[in-house]
Each structure stands twice: as structure tokens, then as C-alpha cells.
Fold each of these.
Amino acid sequence: MSDLLTVQGLCAGYDGIAVVHDLDLHVGAGEVVALLGPNGAGKTTTLSTVSGLLPVIRGELDVLGAGPPSTRRPQRTARRGVAHVPEDRAIFHELTVRENLRLGGLQHGRDLDDVLDYFPALEPLLDRRAGLLSGGEQQMLAVGRALASRPRLLMIDEMSLGLAPIVVERLLPVVRRIADEADVGVLLVEQHVHLALEVADRVYVLNRGQVVVSGPAAQVRDDAQVLESSYLGSTVL
Ligand SMILES: Nc1ncnc2c1ncn2[C@@H]1O[C@H](COP(=O)(O)OP(=O)(O)OP(=O)(O)O)[C@@H](O)[C@H]1O
Ligand SMILES: [Mg+2]
């Protein structure tokens, strides 16, 4: 299986100062990879570097076989097949659900059917202004919009932010289905650690910019103590 994303010895951060150090990570087609860790660990920084919003300070980054992304033209990386759902969801509140999906790259009726197949709850909302949707509906729209671009690599930053656990429990299996059915590689940043471990194939735990635990999700799930200590007393578990 060829990797969609290969990261080796990556240092990334802001104004030349690294906050992520010597990161090794890979994501293959059809895989869900969870990137976990406490606040400030470097999860968002990692995703932003992969999508070309932040420059590589040192190390290797290969995205979809095309090398490192262009920081001058991150949209080129997006066009190649990288979709990034950022922490703030970045949907257009004044536009309708349908218009938001169209901006995501939705062109054909078939694409819309695909998105609605994953998120049927969006169908009756298609002509509603996105700003009027609930948090969970907005998150479905954000992921649906990312899907409309038919990505090969999908990165989702804190899908569960502000959502009730029951909503997260419903959304995460959809992410699993997307990986299984569309052969998309998913890099998932998630605060609901236990829920993420249920849908992920593999896991990396970052702390202070370094990988402190990595391995198959099933293995990490079984070793709660290792996971807990990797968070250094954080209460998210
Ligand atoms: N624009 C910025 N300029 C300078 N430092 C930043 C900037 N954004 C984040 N940082 C710092 O980089 C480190 C990693 O932040 P990052 O946002 O990647 O963490 P995170 O793992 O996504 O955390 P959270 O779970 O809170 O979202 C933190 O110490 C943070 O303060
Ligand atoms: Mg973050």
C-alpha cells in the first residue's frame, strides 16, 4: 500500500521556531489515523503544515507523491486531493448548505448524492443558511463540503469541538465509512480519545510537539496506562 502522506523527521512551527519536532507519521489509502494529544501538543500545526499553510522548517514531507506542499499556493495541494476541515469549520454562514457544498467542488448531482449518502440529515437543510444550522449539522456540512472535492487525503481537526458526545458517536463512524468505501486516507485530530480509538486503525499521540505513543489503535486502546501517562495527567481521558 502506497502512502498518501509520509512525514519524516519533520520540524514545523511559526516564524522559524519549531513547535513540532522530528515527527514521523504516515497515512495510507483507506486508513483512519488518529492524531491525539493534549492542548498545545502541535496537532493543528501538523495539519496546517501538511496542507501548506505553514512551511516545513526541517525534515521530509510528501503529500500524495508530490513532495512538500507549496506554501505560496496551498490551493494547489487542495486541488491535488487534500481536504482540510479546520478547527473553526470555515463554512460560509451567509450561504445556504447547497451553496457551501458547491464551493467545496460539488459539480454533479452524483457528488451531491454521495455527500447526502454519508450525511442524510443535510438533505432537508440544503436551502437553509449555514449559519442557522446546529453545531453538529455545521460539522456535517464542513466534512460534507470537504468530501465534495473528492479528496484522497482528508484531514479533520477536532470534529467534536463543541459537540455533545452522542453527536460525536454518530459522526465518527461516518468518517470510518468514508475511509472504507471511498478509499480515502483520513488524518483525524480528536479530543474524544476513546471514541477516536474505536474508529481509527492507527494512532499517534503528540505531546509538546513530539510523538510519545504510536501504534495500532487496538493496542493503544488496551494499554490505557500508557495512553494516560502520555497525556501527563490531562483529564480528556
Ligand atoms: N500562530 C502561532 N504563532 C506562534 N505559536 C503558535 C501559533 N499557533 C500555535 N502556536 C503554538 O504552537 C504550539 C502548538 O499549537 P497547536 O495549535 O498546534 O496545538 P494543538 O495540539 O492543535 O492544540 P489544541 O488541542 O489546543 O487545539 C502551542 O504551544 C501554541 O501556543
Ligand atoms: Mg488544535
Note: The chain has nine helices and nine strands.
Amino acid sequence: MTSPQAEAVIDLDAYRANIAALAACAPGAELLAVVKAEAYGHGMLPCAKAAREAGASWLGVATVEEALALRAGGDTGNVLCWLASPGADYDAAIDADIEVTASSAEQLAEILTTAAPTSMRPKVQLKVDTGLSRNGAFGEQWTQLVAAAASAQSAGTVEITGVWSHFACADEPDHPANDAQEQAFRTAVDELAAAGVAPALRHLSNSAATMTRPSAHFDLVRVGIASYGINPDRTMEHDVELTPVMTLQGRLAAVKRVPAGTSVSYGQTWSTDRETTLGLVPLGYADGIPRNATNRSEAAFGGERVPVVGTICMDQIIVDLGDLSAQRGDLVTVFGPGTSGEPTADDWAIAAGTIAYEVVCRLSSRVERTYRGER
Ligand SMILES: Cc1ncc(COP(=O)(O)O)c(C=O)c1O
């Protein structure tokens, strides 16, 4: 088998170990592994399978389509999805025993209408907006959703299985919004219970709250970024041992020795100040390398840091290898766990003025994912 010229190597042993470490933070709760957006760029189906192997009793995705793709890929466990505009394929979701989220009475009505002709009773979780102002019912909308859910439950047309919300600032554990959101969530759950609806699953915590806020673990925690070995915020302190799961690497497509004063790449934004060796790595912004990290990032070659020089192109980047001996086909690591001298996804995020979530998620489908530790 020929080796790919560029690949993201996904370490499933690390992924399973991260999930186990996160589950240990919340021993009284179930764990939902968030595998939306192709498992944050790591590949949804292999990660979903590994998450189950690591004991995740739930998988979470944004869209109905993603949830259906999990079923098509053979997953038969609990799946929750949470983002749907009118016209979503609830029918298929309900038939596939996927749990859907209602963020308003109107959305609950749409789910129930769609479900009516099918044989299965829809399993619906209710989302309350406790301060993120994204999805979820807010204020009077919540009161309406509670009433609608109570009446559908009495009519036997729905099974309300969960109630949940999402933090805005959990990656800043001391932020006052966290206490306020947790309190708002408790109030919302009480309001629901007072209407006679007491679902078994109450959940609020993402990775950051799973690691730092036991009071918000409730019945289930939803872990995304930390399961991929990335700290939710680069400054956030915790004592959970996480290992980055993705290593992005490419094989040199060209190597050349050039004199001092040679300009490199579009716009001639960088020039050599000495005779040096340039290496061409077949990864560019079409693969997800952030172009605005131009002249600000590094890679690793043979365990040594080398600067990425000149404007980042659509399909390629150039590294300044100095006097290192290099040949076409040699491996350059763009980012990885950081344990062998290579930068991390977060180093690239700093260079690009973004967060590591975006660095891994934006990796395009052209980059082959190869898996280590498959069972
Ligand atoms: C609803 C929901 N829950 C949980 C998560 C996981 O968050 P994190 O990746 O910070 O753990 C996400 C991700 O954005 C989300 O949208």
C-alpha cells in the first residue's frame, strides 16, 4: 500500500483514554461523546465506534443527517441530535430511534406532526436557553414548551427523555455566568417537574464543565474537544491527563537548495537570509491549513522545529529546513501531540488567531484520515 502524501493520523487509543479520563471526572453521570462535524475533523464513524468501546453510552451530533449517518455506519446505541431548521427529517430520525431536541413548542409540534404516521413514539429532549442565547427555549418560550411537553406526554404522543442546556463560559471556570446558568437550569428543571415532566436525563456540562464543575454534571456530561485531547481553553487549569488524538503530516513533494535572497511563495512575503534548503509540504488552505498563519507558524522535521515560510497556498506550504538533510518523501509533521518536538493544533491556533477547535474541525476531506489502535 502506498502511503498518502498527506494524512491526519488519528490515535484511537489516545481517544479512548481521554474518554475514560473524562468519564472518571463524572463518575455519577453517563457520558455522551460529541462526534458532530466529523468528530471535530477526526472522522465520525471510527471515533463513534471507539467512543462506544471506551464506554460512551451516548453519542451526540448537531444534525439529523449526522445522526442518520451514525445509524448507517452501524451504531445502534443512544444518539441525540440538537440542531434542526423546519423541514428536518424527523420521520427518519424517529424511525431510527434517534433522540431529537425541541427548543420551542413550535418545534415540538413539528416533531410530533412528523411522527404521527410512524409506528414509533418520538423520544424528545427539551432544550432550555440558560444564557448562551443560541438554541433552546428562553423565558416565556420555555414556559410554553413545558406546557406543550406536559400535554403531549399526557396524551401519550411523546416520550420526554431529557432536559438540557449549554454553557457559554465553562472554559473560564470562575466566570460568574457559570453559576447563573447552572441556577437557571435548576429552575427550569423544577418548572418542568412541577408540570409533571421529570425526564431521566438532565445535562448541562461540556468538556470544560466536566473537568472543573462537578455540581453541573447532573445525569450526563457531553464531551467534545477534550475527548480529542485538546484543552477547551489554552489557559484553563485542570488535572485531567489528555493526549491530542490527531497528528497532521505530509511527505515532502519537492526539496531544493536555494541561495540567500530567494523569495518564497505568492507576494514574496518572505526571503531567505542565507543559503538554505526549502521543503514543499502538500498541505494548504484547501486542506484546512489557516492562511492567516502565514509567516507565523512552524512544523517539525526529524524532531526539529522548522519555520513555515512564505504565504500559505491552496495546496501547499513551504518549510525552511536550513542545513538539515532532506529528500522528497520525507515526513513533515504540521502538528501533533507535541511530545516529539512538533507544534500542537493549539500552536497553530495561536498563529492563526483562532482556537484549536477550528484548526482540527476545518481539515478538509482531501486529507486522508488513517487510524491507529482500531479494534
Ligand atoms: C450542545 C453541545 N454540547 C456539547 C458540546 C461539546 O463542547 P466541547 O467541545 O467544548 O466539549 C458541544 C460543542 O460545541 C455542543 O454544541
Note: The radius of gyration is 23 Å.
